[in-house]
Amino acid sequence: xxxxxxxxxxxxxxxxxxxxxxxxxxxxxxxxxxxxxxxxxxxxxxxxxxxxxxxxxxxxxxxxxxxxxxxxxxxxxxxxxxxxxxxxxxxxxxxxxxxxxxxxxxxxxxxxxxxxxxxxxxxxxxxxxxxxxxxxxxxxxxxxxxxxxxxxxxxxxxxxxxxxxxxxxxxxxxxxxxxxxxxxxxxxxxxxxxxxxxxxxxxxxxxxxxxxxxxxxxxxxxxxxxxxxxxxxxxxxxxxxxxxxxxxxxxxxxxxxxxxxxxxxxxxxxxxx
Length: 273
Known about the structure:
Elements: E1 3-4, E2 10-11, H1 16-27, H2 60-88, H3 95-124, H4 133-155, H5 160-169, H6 171-188, H7 192-198, H8 200-206, H9 209-224, H10 229-261, H11 267-272
Antiparallel strand pairs: 1-2
Helix pairs in contact: 2-3, 2-4, 3-4, 3-9, 3-10, 4-6, 5-6, 6-9, 9-10
């Protein structure tokens, strides 16, 4: 009777090759010269040969938690720094104007970062990054509220008549206030409960983030007047994000047209059935 070996070879029981393998498996040493190791044999590692490094995959949940922690730090740091500087009187000659200006800039940066999440997900295929969008958006809304309250409370001392006059007469305040109003429903409906209630309407509603950011860029551009470098940079970033969205949408429409031409229905049409 013969025992089957890899590649269909057969060896008589009790032969030197089989005994060599059995001895190697029993004692955990290397098989004799001329004997090929069996895939199931336990071979003692040679201490002179360096072990290959194992590739360890990063924990995606840990990565998201670290990024969320970084967003919390980046979102709270300007508030703490400006608050301490205001009470210590270390913000310069006009601390109120500095607070308003820095809070407005941080708001715009966070809005652009929020809008950049979806293009990054589509370009890289990293879907988990979508978990950062809500936190970025809420921090953007929080800084926008602080930006407006700093103007209304510290500069105008909550004098409603002066605030309404500025909103009516000063165009950069008009567009800035309009952008803040557009952000309110986005912040209110950012919870999972509202996502379930609104369904597809939730995505349509949250497209208001684009005109709100555009109004913020225009507000910044009209406010600085002379030094328009950073407003122009913000406008270019927003235009690039919009371009990525338009290109993706065109590809999606073209893909749907090809499916229709080949007689296949799109996944959306199949779900409707």
